[in-house]
Design goal:
The chain is mainly beta. It is built from four helices and 18 strands. Helix 2 packs across helix 4.
Length: 336
């Protein structure tokens, strides 16, 4: 439990800035709350996607988009009248090539299948968002770990939030100790050397979301790494139903409880402005449903719907990706 002394520590204030920044990124105009659909082109062979302008079709390693001025689409900020060939978007959502006003239409590729994601800042989910519920900071849950790389990267098949099975790339595991017992987390290594884990624990689906993400920093030359479970992240599918987050690998769920980090996302009832509503719970596969009971932490000066607040320092593109939970990269490793 956090004490007054702990709340005066540098670690606590660093975590508080991180948590406040995370809420800002989640509530950003093109953050995860704005996703209104992931449309797989294979499900629309005629090329017409409901509520999405233009004609979209696959053509080998590219997507072909045909539009008229009436569609109101722009590509690279220029009006589109005719045909354009598109690859997968790999940068931030607001930097995607195709737009319609404030909407961003993001081209996605997963295991040879193409999709278009529709990010709309006016989405009802974003308008109803209130905060990310999290437990108070506890230094006990900032742990020393050891990264043990595999001899070679491996891919395991895991179910995703949309019910389909996809590959999840893994590069090694982190070993750490909780209350005298050793545990491990299977992790991927990101291009910058940092680590990424999808994990579940004894609180999953009960007092926290059914699984969460964790992004430890790069280990040092001896494999030592700091694991801060206070910074456990809600996956993007906790904010919008249309993400395809991977579930934890089979060996990751553990009976030990991790009562730290982000637990749920709370919304306000739109018909009663200012009143907190029930936590947002996207559809969950049978057996994963739970009733979250998390302690809300709300920044004193944070207006949830602001994209940047003066009290929050500017953050880099990588930091924004980390705190929002969105990764636009494509490839073998499963991503939201």
């Amino acid at each position: 439990m956090s004490t007054d002394a702990q709340q005066d520590s540098e670690e606590f204030h660093d975590w508080q800035r991180w948590h406040e920044g995370r809420i800002v990124a989640v509530a950003a105009p093109h953050g995860p709350l704005s996703l209104t659909g992931t449309h797989w082109l294979a499900d629309h062979p005629e090329g017409r996607i409901p509520a999405v302008p233009g004609l979209w079709r696959e053509d080998g390693d590219e997507v072909v988009l045909v539009a008229t001025p009436e569609d109101g689409l722009t590509v690279d900020a220029e009006p589109l009248d005719g045909e354009v060939r598109l690859g997968a978007d790999r940068g931030p959502v607001d930097a995607s090539r195709v737009a319609q006003g404030d909407r961003r239409l993001v081209v996605l590729s997963r295991e040879g299948l193409w999709a278009v994601r529709d990010f709309d800042p006016q989405s009802p989910t974003r308008q109803a968002f209130r905060t990310v519920d999290a437990t108070p900071y506890d230094p006990k849950w900032s742990l020393d770990g050891t990264f043990r790389p595999y001899d070679s990267d491996r891919t395991v098949r895991v179910e995703n939030a949309d019910g389909r099975e996809r590959g999840l790339g893994l590069s090694g595991e982190i070993a750490f100790t909780v209350d005298g017992a050793e545990h491990t987390l299977q992790v991927a290594v990101e291009p910058d050397g940092s680590l990424w884990a999808v994990f579940a624990d004894a609180t999953s689906g009960k007092s926290s979301y059914r699984f969460r993400f964790l992004r430890p920093p790069a280990p040092d030359g001896d494999g030592r790494v700091r694991i801060d479970f206070n910074r456990a992240l809600l996956p993007p599918c906790a904010f919008a139903d249309h993400f395809i987050c991977p579930f934890p690998p089979p060996a990751t769920p553990s009976p030990w409880p991790c009562p730290r980090g982000s637990g749920t996302a709370s919304t306000a009832d739109p018909s009663h402005p200012g009143r907190e509503g029930r936590p947002h719970r996207p559809r969950q596969p049978q057996g994963c449903r739970g009733r979250p009971r998390c302690v809300p932490i709300r920044p004193k000066t944070h207006p949830c719907m602001a994209y940047r607040h003066p009290s929050i320092l500017p953050i880099s593109a990588r930091q924004e990706r980390d705190i929002s939970g969105i990764c636009m990269s494509s490839g073998a490793r499963s991503r939201p």
